Amino acid sequence: MSTTLDGKVVLVTGASSGIGEATALALSAEGALVAVGARRADRLESLARKAPGEVLTLELDVTDPESVRAAVAATVDRFGALDVLVNNAGVMLSGPIAGADTTEWTRMVETNLLGSMYTVHAALPHLLASKGTVLQISSTSGRIASANSGVYAATKFGITAFAESLRQEVTTQGVRVVVIEPGFVATELASHITDPTMRAAAQQMATSMRILHPEDIANAIVYALTQPEHVAVNEILIRPTDQT
Ligand code: NDP
After folding, report:
1. Residue 183 domain-assigned?
2. What distance in angstroms lies between residue 230's CA and the mean position of ligand 1's atoms?
3. What angle do CA 109, 18, 33 make, to 5 degrees?
4. ipTM confidence score
5. Which residues are catalytic?
């Protein structure tokens, strides 16, 4: 027996492309009322036109706690509640630690780690009221660190730690916490890498194997969100078959 997402209110951060966009569309197709946030408002508008159900577009910068609070408030104003937070916004600016541009470290920590924490903080009162779900997009880099992804991996390890603390604090109040850990997915994530060698390596990796599509992650998210209330899917690690 699975539950339905019909009429559930979901906020997806980082929904202007990639995994967030595919997830918003999949949840809309499942009958959810979806609020989508990101900085590129034009991309959100085109998503809203494609979605089968009602979509609220929100210009959102997760590094700004005020922007996050406003997005959560606008979602609840429009749809009357919040049942699911898909905490997805993120950046990956890979490169070696020695000689790194530390402003890129700041961007990753502020977006991936602090941004997702601010979003949980703003959404939690509503999720406690609805006995809702926090679904956090981490990464295989949240389980295994590798050379040239030190700070990105640190943010994703941090996300997993924060999610586990959160889970222990809220699970007996009926709020479920899910961590999704994708391997290599075909999105624009790696195109923002500024180090040319790292960017080329990511492009080479993308063409050397059958990588995941954003819809593959969206399917895992729909699975986690449609389990009966007594079932908490806490973690899903999902890699391309060809990824070692
Ligand atoms: P994309 O680059 O396609 O999507 C990233 C999203 O995050 C965009 O919608 C972007 O929107 C948003 N974003 C970035 N900065 C901010 C910000 N300050 N405020 C609000 N939104 C922001 O990449 P993916 O879809 O691949 O990435 C989504 C998540 O999946 C990330 O957390 C990433 O770490 C994770 N992931 C991705 C993997 C992959 O191989 N692609 C593997 C494992 C995890 P905008 O620029 O419009 O603000």
Report:
1. yes
2. 30
3. 100
4. 0.99
5. 152
